[in-house]
Write a structure and sequence with these properties.
Elements: H1 2-58, H2 64-154
């Protein structure tokens, strides 16, 4: 019964993780689509500017001041929206970077704890071995004293 409950909990958690991954994937896909749209808009503005420049070269000067204002207003709006979307991408990538750095730091911490634990374990083993060695030496000396004391008593 416990295995069935644990299995269903794991399945539910896995389903939740899948849903979160799909949501993140959709969000990234939408942001990439928005970036593609902005790149296309930049391309159209550049081609508009080049066509406007060609008209100037050819001598067509009708409403050039209005076109310049519209063109630069378009560039300003484009720059604003590009920075807005870029900041969203930047936040997303900074989040990923922070996530991986955190994992790396935690891994270093666990490695340091493991190394410290193994060093402590070695010290404990060395101390136990030293304790046993001192005990053996002490026991041998007692035997030597005991045997010499016994011979002294028998003599």
């Amino acid at each position: 019964m416990l295995h069935a409950t644990t299995g269903s909990v794991h399945a539910q958690r896995a389903d939740e993780r899948r849903q979160e991954a799909l949501l993140v994937g959709r969000t990234v896909q939408e942001r990439l689509h928005a970036a593609v749209v902005w790149v296309q808009l930049v391309d159209q503005l550049v081609s508009f500017h080049e066509a406007h420049r060609e008209l100037r070269v050819l001598g067509v000067h009708e409403q050039t001041d209005d076109r310049d204002r519209v063109f630069f207003l378009g560039w300003r709006l484009l720059g604003f929206f590009f920075l807005l979307h870029f900041s969203i991408f930047l936040r997303f990538f900074l989040f990923l970077l922070a996530f991986f750095v955190e994992i790396f730091v935690l891994r270093l911490f666990f490695v340091a704890v493991h190394v410290a634990g193994s060093l402590c374990e070695r010290k404990v083993v060395a101390a136990r071995d030293m304790h046993e060695l001192v005990g053996l030496v002490f026991a041998e000396r007692l035997d030597v004293l005991g045997s010499s004391g016994a011979t002294a008593l028998h003599a």
